[in-house]
Design goal:
The chain is mostly beta strands. Helix content is 15%, strand content 40%. The strands form 3 sheets. Strands 3, 4, 5, 6, 9, 10, 11, 12 and 15 form a 9-stranded mixed sheet that branches. Strands 1, 2, 7, 14 and 16 form a 5-stranded mixed sheet that branches. It has a two-stranded antiparallel ribbon with strand order 8-13. The longest helix is centred in the first third of the chain and has 23 residues. 28% of the residues are buried.
Length: 252
């Protein structure tokens, strides 16, 4: 009897060690996000491109930046990438691609926050993508600029015909962070097939034309400059949340 008990104890101990090892050494692969900013499908060109919004107003773009954070890939439950924030800056090509690890599995979608969550908005000066030197931070009580669009337009009544949208505000009914969820339209695209030592690359197009007209008709003639939190900033955020579309998925 003692021998049997001893064997059972040894078996359970080995099982516990094996399970613990499996949990702690779970294999992971790489998920890479690659973003292309466009205007009606044409790659955005800072300073040199001339565009027309849905209201026939002409404009050029000198700055285009926005935050993406708290990314999840979806498979029944979410795998959350906590504490990672990415500043997409059209003037910095390196910022248009970024990667993170995810457990080996197949995923059918992804979710992320367009903007910066409220906790980080009141955490004072930070580093990396959230460094105030990135020119995307107001003050501790106004927080981060979630998205920034600057340029010029002959329809602008502002000084030097400038167009300037700094969209922020992290609390209350006019908060501007937006949660975006994407389900992979199978069989149109491959699933996100994460494998050890491999990369799954998700290609996303952000169409700036959506900035002007989705939930709200934003006309340069009426509002060439919006640089404070409020109702208008919130409605513009409802527009640009529609910019994003998954265009391809590649597993390699």
């Amino acid at each position: 009897m003692k021998l049997i008990k001893g064997l059972i104890f040894c078996f359970l101990s080995m099982l516990l060690i094996t399970c613990k090892k499996a949990v702690t050494t779970a294999e992971k692969g790489t998920v890479k996000i690659t973003i292309k900013n466009t205007v009606k499908g044409i790659p955005l060109a800072l300073n040199t491109g001339n565009y027309t919004n849905p209201f026939g107003e002409q404009y050029s773009v000198s700055k285009f930046k926005y935050y993406i954070s708290n990314i999840n890939v979806i498979n029944g439950i979410n795998f959350q990438l906590n504490g990672r924030y990415f500043l997409i800056d059209e003037s910095n090509l390196a910022s248009l691609s970024f990667s993170f690890e995810a457990p080996v599995d197949t995923y059918v979608g992804m979710i992320f926050l367009l903007g910066v969550d409220s906790a980080r908005n009141v955490s004072g000066a930070q580093t990396g993508a959230l460094d105030p030197l990135n020119d995307m931070f107001w003050t501790w009580n106004s927080g981060y600029i979630m998205a920034k669009l600057e340029g010029n337009s002959p329809q602008s009544s502002a000084v030097n015909n400038k167009v300037e949208y700094h969209i922020g505000g992290f609390s209350g009914t006019n908060a501007t962070p937006r949660v975006l969820t994407f389900m992979i339209p199978s069989p149109t695209f491959n699933i996100i097939d994460v494998r050890a030592g491999k990369t799954s690359e998700i290609f996303i197009e952000a169409d700036l034309d959506k900035w002007w007209k989705e939930a709200y008709d934003l006309k340069i003639t009426d509002n060439p400059v919006v640089t404070t939190p409020g109702v208008l900033a919130g409605t513009i955020a409802n527009n640009y949340r529609k910019m994003f579309t998954i265009t391809d998925i590649r597993n390699y």
